[in-house]
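User: Run a structure prediction on this.
Assistant: Running it now.
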Amino acid sequence: MVFWLFKRKEDKEAHRKIDQVHRILKNSFENVKNDIEELGEWHRTLQVSHKEHRYKIEEINERLKRLENLIFSMNYKSREIIKETPKIEKQIEKDEDEKMEHNDEDILNILTATQVNMFVKLYHLQKQVGSKISYKSLAAIIYRDKKYSEVRSTLSEYISFLVDHNLVRKYRKGKESYAGITERGLELLKQLDKDELEAIDKKED
């Protein structure tokens, strides 16, 4: 009887330990299971993250390719523009020269004999003196028999006409007015040969 009681007590203790081990194993299994699930979730998250990163990298690569193509295209166009620039500049210079020639021809056709005479005399005086010429000095050469006060307004009008066409430039020094031939005026004078001067001289003042 006593043996049976001890035996029963040992069986209960064994069952208790077995149950304890069972609980421990169950808890361990649950923990491992949870860890595996968390690991799986982390792995899935990592995969999604990798996919997102890969997509972003691919998108960046596409942008870089487009940017590279754009830069290449711009460089090509820039080289073409640089090649064409001298041609364009030459054409502009040619057009400007032709325009200047036409303008010079127009001016030659509208200048009166008196204006040409004044223009040429101003040039010769300036060449002799080496500087700009005063209105009074020019009037004394062109209008020998008249007082300066009588011809001042007429002289000023003629000079203003030449100034408007960039053939002569006006200067002021104190109360005295001066005039000088411009670069364009010098270029125009080179075109005035004897035949042209005679033709202009026939025009009425």
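Helices lie at 2-110, 113-129, 135-142, 148-164, 183-191, 194-201.
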